[in-house]
Amino acid sequence: xxxAQFKWEQGGDGIVTLTFDTPGKPVNLxxxxxxxxxxxxxxxxxxxxxxxxxxxxxxxxxxxxxxxxLDEMAGIAGxxxxxxAKAVFEAMMGIHRVFxxxxxxxxxxxxxxxxxxxxxxxxLTLACHHRIMAQGGSGxxxxxxxxxxxxxxxxxxxxxxxxxxxxxxxPLMLESRRIDAASALGMGIVQQTVPAAELISAAKAWIAAxxxxxxxWDKSDFRIPGGGPFSKSGAQVFTVGNAMLRSRTYDNYPAQxxxxxxxxxxxxxxxxxxxxxxxxxxxRALLSDNSKAMIRTLFHSMQELGKGARRPKEVARTEVxxxxxxxxxxxxxxxxxxxxxxxxxxxxxxTTADRAEAGKNHSxxxxxxEISRGRSTPARKEETLARIHPExxxxxxxDVDLVVEAVFEDRKVKxxxxxxxxxxxxxxxxxxxxxSTLPITGLAQSSKRPENFxxxxxxxxxxxxxxxEIIVGKLTNDRALATAIDYAGKIRKTPIVVxxxxxxxxxxxxxxxxxxxxxxxxEGITPPLIENAGRMAGMPMGPLEVLDSVGVDTALxxxxxxxxxxxxxxxxxxxxxxxxxxxxxxxxxxxxxxKGFYDYDNRGKRARLWPGLLSYASGKxxxxxxxxxxxxxxxxxxxxxxARCYEENVITDPRDxxxxxxxxxxxxxxxxxxxxxxxxxxAAAFVAQCETLTKKYGERFRPxxxxxxxxxxxxxxxxxxxxxxxx
Length: 727
Known about the structure:
Elements: E1 6-10, E2 15-20, H1 32-47, E3 53-58, E4 62-65, H2 70-77, H3 84-104, E5 109-113, E6 115-118, H4 120-126, E7 130-134, E8 141-142, H5 156-164, H6 166-174, E9 178-179, H7 181-187, E10 192-194, H8 199-209, H9 232-249, H10 254-266, H11 271-286, H12 289-306, E11 322-326, H13 330-341, E12 345-349, H14 353-372, H15 378-385, E13 388-391, E14 402-405, H16 411-422, E15 430-433, H17 440-443, E16 453-458, E17 467-472, H18 478-490, E18 494-499, H19 506-523, H20 527-536, H21 543-550, H22 552-567, H23 574-585, E19 598-600, E20 606-609, H24 627-647, H25 654-665, H26 674-681, H27 683-697, H28 705-713, H29 717-726
Parallel strand pairs: 2-3, 3-5, 4-6, 5-7, 6-8, 7-10, 11-12, 11-14, 12-13, 14-15, 15-16, 17-18
Antiparallel strand pairs: 1-2, 8-9, 16-17, 19-20
């Protein structure tokens, strides 16, 4: 045997320990080379009478196997239009043949899972006769494929339902859940959990006690747990499951539908036929436009940006050890939490000791919630809280590496905080402003060192939102940009880099969604139709619910400021009139008050659309609007604004545009982002759609020059970017 991905060690007891160690990678990947070596291994084991059993484990601490090599899969899928489907199908069937040899070789095979096993890594363990997982620690098992438009393709849709029943297996695959060792044991995915140091000895003991094991589905008396699709309980699983899937995804995600179909159809036949069914659905998923766009944005681009792809290469890496935060409100307190959690010493400044202490208490509440859910410990809570220092005196900032200003969204308030900070911090300290709308270049005028001034825009709630929008002002230098990106990486956020503009990129594009919803409201389209169309478009909330969440009063203030500073108009727009009616005449500022466009219960949960909405415009509501037309309006206006931002140099990298859209405001993830959506449609088709909407609804849908030029040349956003990188 010629092994490069694995290490073979045979003991005197005849048990082989096969250790997974993908060369040159921080994690193990189930590549075609790894599968080929597993084929060699199983042939050797099956034909060697001296081998009594096999244990598969990993050398990489905390990682058993992260799954398939997606770059390799993309390469197979790109063989050619005529051959791609055949190549992908044959590749998957090659994996199935090897894994079936594992199950039918007649000798016991145990997976000693000493870390996280995801996707193909988990599927490798499912093909073993027994699974033992290390107790505690950060190890997780799960199927993340649906998050990027794929389905489990190495037997997961067939083995897991046969192991734990379709009712328990489907949510893990459809929702991309990752569960710990205790949960995996409780569900029956693993059969034992032991301390990490005892994994190998426990595996050997099981092998000694089970010399001739069989996979359950290879036994003549096998019955599907919970019943098959035609049983009473099985029929309920798929009937209810399909209804729930449709209600949650609006059929925007083909991969989830393929999972349901592969499980349903596979459970009607034997395991080998089921694996062929899975391979066909996997091939369809991988070759779909949805999957290609989602893999590019949610896997490749996110990884690249997270590793600092937009960082100035010539600037030495910096490590923020001491952070100053101005403002201990919701945003400042959230920033303090994620920073302290990352090991950063935080000085949290506010105007009074009570306010500063309240900011620290925000972290206490977050930790208590995590501890109650088993996701953290009292020791970690104590250690992290010790890094947060509530203060009221600016002089306490004299030795910080970075300052993040998170005070009220007002130029004068921010200018005052900037001046007080400048008076005490060293000349080398970088100053970052957490603002969602105010141009950074203008705010930097309050600083003695505008070259050290950069925008660092967090999203709420900070502990859950994975994006940081870094804004480069006209005078921002590369060191300030690099520091902001390094800091974002340290707190485990994905940074995108944009140039200065009112609303920057995320707020500017996102506002088109809510404003278009309000415009429809003003036209007389019924609120339920607007809201449902928004969700059907793939957005996490309807535009009116979003306004409640942001604060209708806050949105009203921003819209009025924009009218005065940008359009210089004395006449309010219909959306502004509606927000003024909701806030000032009806006293309904949004979720924070328990009432806005929606009514909310005492826990802040959405109860219903406010019936009073129907009194607007004397209740003259239309009832014959086409929901598909509404969806087109809501999604097109956002994508068009993203294209305008690209043309205006607000964004210069399509990865920033797509990742920022999905992580920042929840733009329909199944599209891969607004620029990917335009690329998939083709510029010509998108421009034609915009022109149709312009004729019907006005100039806001007028396609920009860049899109018209791309229509003539046939270029795409990613094609232009690739050419620019190569030049």
